[in-house]
Amino acid sequence: MKMRTGCVAMLLVALFASAAFGAKFTINAGIGLNDKSAQFQSLQYFKEVVEKNSDGKIEVVLFHSSQLGDDRTMMEALKMGTQEMTCPSTAPMTAFINAFKIYDLPFIFANEEVADYILDGPVGKKLLDMLPDQGLVGLAYWENGFRMLTNSSHPVVTPEDLKGLKIRTMENPIHLAAFRTMGANPTPMAFGELFSAMQQKVVDGQENPWGTIFLQNFFEVQKYATDTGHVYSPFVLLISKKFWDKLPDDLKAVVQDAADQAKVHNRALNRKMNAEYLEKLKEKMEVVILTPEQKAAFQEACLPIYEQFGKDIGEDLIKEVQELSAGFKK
Ligand code: TK8
Question: Which one in 18, 101, 127, 266 has a CA-CA gap of 20 to 30 Å to 95?
Fold first, then answer.
């Protein structure tokens, strides 16, 4: 009798031990940026926390540089359940959930602190809560950051300087409309095609945060930059709902906690890197830093966009963000 209990106990120990060795779940996570980006470094951070806190039950495998596809195709793979994780800019997410267009309104966030406040508050949550209906679960808002304009033709100091410039935008109707309104000739394109499009002069320019402009070597094919900061791009750490529903609650908690921890890491790192790479870019490109008056001219030129997309996004939602932002105190 004693012997048998001992055997069962040993068997149980053996079973648990083997569970700890072989991961039960694999998260394949892909992004568009390269492995030097703050985004990739934050995914590495996420991977470490998840693998440690799940006692190896979850393994995270990372892919960068659009190895698994662009933002749009990876989101589709998450919906189908053939890929577990990605971290797109919110702009291409609007193809699935219209309300995310709120983040595409030019100059809607005055600075990063306001962006954090809105994204981590009721508005940000309300939008994440819309994702499960689309087969996606939004774990946290990470940061792509304020977008800056670059081009290969001439310095851009006023909106008039945009005239005739062929600018690549993300696949998003508001970004297209905003650049059209400012007088440019915008064209949407997946991120993975952008470098060669600039190299082959299919487009004259693009817009992305300083870190991306530096780390993706855009300065090799772009001579001029302007700190327009016209849009703040959030990233959303997304997980496939099909995968999420299979995870036991304790592991869901581990993944959610790691996503939140990595968010804090990501925002701090991204801001530090954007500031550092701006200084490095000044040695490689002609960088225009706009005065507040010059920046206001871009803001004014974009005002018709609020009118044009007000109904589509929802006047109430826009008002809610504007009122919350106005009430924000550091
Ligand atoms: C990376 C994209 C990129 C975005 C863009 O997949 O497309 O310009 O800024 O960073 O999400």
Answer: 266
Q: Is 212 in the pocket of ligand 1 (CB under 6 A)?
A: yes
Laid out side by side, the sheet with 85-86 consists of 58-63, 25-30, 85-86, 232-240, 136-146
> What's the angle, vertex CA 47, arms to CA 33 and CA 214, rounded to 5?
25
Q: Give the number of the atom of ligand 1 that is nearest the alpha carbon of residue 190.
A: 7
| Atom number in ligand 1 closest to CA 31 | 6
Cα angle: 308, vertex 324, 104; to 5 degrees: 35
Confirm or reject: Cβ of 39 under 6 Å from ligand 1: no
3.50.50.60, 3.40.50.360, 3.40.190.170, 3.40.50.12780: CATH of 2-144+233-275? 3.40.190.170
What is the full per-residue pLDDT of the chain (330 aa) written as tens digits? 444 555 555 555 444 444 445 789 999 999 999 999 999 999 999 999 999 999 999 999 999 999 999 999 999 999 999 999 999 999 999 999 999 999 999 999 999 999 999 999 999 999 999 999 999 999 999 999 999 999 999 999 999 999 999 999 999 999 999 999 999 999 999 999 999 999 999 999 999 999 999 999 999 999 999 999 999 999 999 999 999 999 999 999 999 999 999 999 999 999 999 999 999 999 999 999 999 999 999 999 999 999 999 999 999 999 999 999 999 987
Residues facing 235 on adjacent strands = 89, 142
CATH code matching the domain that covers 148-231+279-324, chosen among 3.30.420.10, 3.40.50.450, 3.40.190.170, 3.40.50.10540:
3.40.190.170
Task: Indicate which residue's Cα is closest to atom 5 of ligand 1.
Answer: 191
Q: State the distance from the centre of ligand 1 to the C-alpha of 191, rounded, in angstroms.
A: 5
Closest residue to atom 7 of ligand 1, CA basis: 191
